[in-house]
Amino acid sequence: AQSVSQHNHHVILSEAASLELGCNYSYGGTVNLFWYVQYPGQHLQLLLKYFSGDPLVKGIKGFEAEFIKSKFSFNLRKPSVQWSDTAEYFCAVIAYGSSNTGKLIFGQGTTLQVKP
Amino acid sequence: NAGVTQTPKFRVLKTGQSMTLLCAQDMNHEYMYWYRQDPGMGLRLIHYSVGEGTTAKGEVPDGYNVSRLKKQNFLLGLESAAPSQTSVYFCASKASGVHEQYFGPGTRLTVT
After folding, report:
1. How many whole angstroms separate alpha carbon A93 and alpha carbon A98?
2. Residue A84 per-residue DSSP state
3. Which residues 26-85 in chain B show a CB within 8 A of chain A?
4. Rounded mean pLDDT of B46-51?
C-alpha cells in the first residue's frame, strides 16, 4: 500500500538553528506532495506543495522543500527557526489514482520544539 | 467567511453511546473529508464525499457512517462508540480542480 514516512518524530532545536525534516513516499509514479503545519491548538494549514516543475518549492514563513524523485523524498527545510515555528509538521501525498478525489495520505507527523 | 467549522469542539462519550459530528463549509467546495488524528499515526481518512449526495469509504471507515445531504455539510456518525474511537477528528474540504484541502479546527472525542 502507498505510504508516507517521516523519520523524525520529535525534533528539538534552539532558535536560529537550521531545520530539515525528512519525508519519504512509496509510490514511484507522478506524485503531488504537501507539507502541512499544525500550530498548538490550531487546525492544519498548508505550508507548501509540489505538483511539477522546479523541484525546489518555497512556502510560507521561510520554509522550502526539495523534491528528489530518485530518492522518493520531499524534505522540508528552514535555514533559521524561530520559537513560533514550534508545531507539528505533516508530509502528505495524494493517493495513487486519486487525483479526481483528492484523497491524501499523511505521514506520522514530526513534532518540532524550538527553544528560545 | 468562516471557512470550515466543526461542532462540537469537545465531547466525552460512554461506550455504546452514539453521536454525530457536524462539519460545515462556506466556500462552496465540492469535496469534503473526515480524518482522525492519533499520536504517531498522522491523519487517516475515514470517509469522504465528492459531491452532494455522495459518500465513499476511506482508509479506516469501520464504526463510522457519514451523510452529505447538503453541499455545505458533512456529518460523521458513530452509532455505538468504542474506546478505540477516542481521537481528534478533522474535517476538510476542497474545491474541484485544485488539490489544497482546508481543514477545520478539530473535535476532540473521548470514549470511556
Report:
1. 10
2. G
3. 31, 33, 35, 40-45, 48, 50, 56, 58-59
4. 96
Cα–Cα dist A83/B48, whole Å: 35
All three cell numbers of B65: 457512517
Q: From A42, which residue of chain B is nearest by alpha-carbon distance? A: B105
- Residue indicated by cell numbers 484541502: B101
Report yes or no: A76 and A19 within 8 Å, Cβ to Cβ. yes
Q: Do B101 and A104 touch (CB under 8 A)?
A: yes
Pairing label, strands A19-21, B4-7 = unpaired
* Grid cell locating A40: 498548538
B89 shares contact with chain A (CB less than 8 Å) = no
Alpha-carbon separation of residue B106 from A7, A73, B34 (angstroms)? 25, 29, 10
Q: Which of B78, B74, B21, B26 is nearest to B50 (CA)?
A: B74
Contacts of A70 (CB under 8 A, 6+ apart): none
Write the pLDDT tens digit of every residue in A60-113: 999 999 999 999 999 999 999 999 999 999 999 987 666 677 889 999 999 999
Could you tell me which residues come within 8 angstroms of residue B98 by beta carbon, excluding any fewer than 6 positions away?
none
